[in-house]
């Protein structure tokens, strides 16, 4: 088969007989050429891992990792655009001179969409650890930047612009890449373009509210985007906060302070009933242009990206649950559809406010349903599906009623992979490469979890397990790093902590939260027991 005709993704082929009479065929051997993950001699060499007391969650974590692996492709294998009337051809250039780059899906669209990276990249960094493909995908955004500072919505061969949210996804994705890779040279190389991109988007801040007024209305497929949109403003808040961190890494403290001031001005406005907060409902409205929808993306990102006031956290989490059906979260801003991209935001939103049980339930309900579905791939994650369980995602809103157009290996649907490592295991990075880290596990209904990932500083791993009267926590991280332990505790009284049998000082006990904090945990290996 010519390279241009390789369909991309999945370890299978289809055989058809070209005759209408009986034919006996004996297959003695099948060999498939795989085009994904082109720079890896060993396709099983993941740098991250995860294991827990729930086998379904384990399968979901690895299915997310495998989906992302399928989406790392050679740069000469993009899907041609405009599309062919019949068949397919995958020999378009994806815009990088590197050897591998992330695309949205292994079969469709086989192009780098910036918005997808917001969910895909954090999951990559805790699983496959493919920094090369991530770096090339992000560098592409800066290479294609317009003179005005706008970053593309999608790279070659599509070359789409006109999305404020996807523009910001590239900036947030840059932070996530630096956090895990420690590649500050990448930031220095692109710093002028990064600042121009910030200036481009902050020029759209409304006065006097300081909130983003969206004019680049391209987005992930929601019915409408524009005005003082909640999801876009949550992304704007995150863009400014992470931008400030990167400005400090570059040695610009005054610039960082300015961006932080802009962020908190925006936050105050968005949390006001004068703008998008609806105190009667306990959720954010979609925008100043549409008060009839309480969106899944906007309310989820308000939690995940910390735009929402802490006073609203539980109300928002409660409201999101009202959209759940038996096979996932119904999406108000795209009716009749269930969208794992947005559900990925939701599970992280619940986890961000300590609602681990809710997040785990939604993961099992949606991703577990698809993974066990005999009509799915049973190994990767689908782009989206309808509330009735059919694979007609966006069939009536852009996909021309074509159920076969739905991608069944979409990186934007891999949020559980990152969520389980980052929140449930609880191993989080706070400084480039992991020089600073936090261990903040959330138990949910699990009895043990272990996992880890790798950065240029070395391997980071952790494990927690419940024991009678408390639990054990083990971590093993590179020497020379400094961490903070934020650990569950009973609300009935102050627990005790011991390290290798010796009592360990607890710096903070927050009884109302049921949480303790141990500061300045040294890198290396340690086993801690918490007794209630």
UniProtKB/TrEMBL annotation:
GO BP term (any one): carbohydrate metabolic process
GO MF, one example: catalytic activity
Domain (Alpha-L-rhamnosidase six-hairpin glycosidase): residue spans on this chain: 96-273
Gene3D superfamilies for the chain: 1.50.10.10, Maltose phosphorylase, domain 3
Domain Alpha-L-rhamnosidase C-terminal: 426-493
Pfam families attached to this UniProt entry: Bac_rhamnosid6H, Bac_rhamnosid_C
Transmembrane segments: none
Alphabetized PANTHER family for the sequence: ALPHA-RHAMNOSIDASE (PTHR34987:SF5), C, PUTATIVE (AFU_ORTHOLOGUE AFUA_3G02880)-RELATED (PTHR34987)
Protein name: Glycoside hydrolase family 78 protein
